[in-house]
Amino acid sequence: GEYFLDRYGSKAAERTPPVRRMLDLGIPVGAGTDATRVASYNPWLSLYWLVAGKTVGGTALFSEANCLSREEALILYTQGSSWFSGESGKKGAMVIGQLADVTALTEDYMSVAEEKIKGIESVLTIVGGKIVYAVQEFQKLDPAPLPVLPDWSPIKVYGGYGAPLDIRKAARAGVPMPQHQHKAECHHHGCYHAAHQLLAGIEGARNRYAEFWGLGCDCFAF
């Protein structure tokens, strides 16, 4: 976003990535989320970016010529991504014979004010024909939440999606180091996923973790 502009300039930002040009050349394009250490899983932020060409904070990155229509952006998220997963014709469109994955939204994506796209949420989500999430008027249809796996995961003590981790609270919850057995230890800063290890040297560990930046570490995706 703004950091990219500061570092590389507006000309580079206008063509990073050149989505419109890629589509014009017939290159398959799928939309999604990535780099989720620093970005969001929220698809509406990405759809807003594709349509408005702006950061979450409202800074313009793309010229109007590189922005997509709402329908084009949605197609990249659905049919475009199904092509990359080898599932074209199986999912990505609301037609007979394809997977019944649908959602009811808080706003009409096709007509809501552009700035409101990034605030859209689901009130009812159906995957494979089964309800997996429901709120508001559909609340009574909401299934029981799935257990957190693995059970040592600090997400058990997070305050919700996007909430910062309270390290002391996580440590008191007993996130056990012996159960933290993934083999993708970062060669730069080691594995600081266990909350009580962070707590042992809370400031030093936090600073050391925050300082590392570059190509990424082995552990963040696991």
Would you kindly provide a written description of the structure presented here, covering whatever features stand out?
The protein is mainly alpha-helical. It is built from eight helices and three strands. The protein has helices at 2-8, 10-14, 19-24, 43-52, 70-84, 167-172, 195-200, 202-211, and strands spanning 102-105, 122-127, 130-134. It has a three-stranded antiparallel beta sheet, with no helix packed on it. Helix 4 (43-52) packs across helix 5 (70-84).
Features:
8 helices, 2 domains, mainly alpha, single chain
Topology:
Elements: H1 2-8, H2 10-14, H3 19-24, H4 43-52, H5 70-84, E1 102-105, E2 122-127, E3 130-134, H6 167-172, H7 195-200, H8 202-211
Query: Which strand order spans the largest sheet, edge to edge or round the barrel?
Result: 1-2-3
Query: What's the mean pLDDT score?
Result: 77
Number of domains in the coordinates? 2
What structural category arises from helix and sheet content?
mainly alpha
Helix proportion: 25-40%
Order of helices and strands: HHHHHEEEHHH
Count of helix runs: 8
Q: Give the DSSP E fraction (strand runs of 2 or more residues).
A: 5-15%
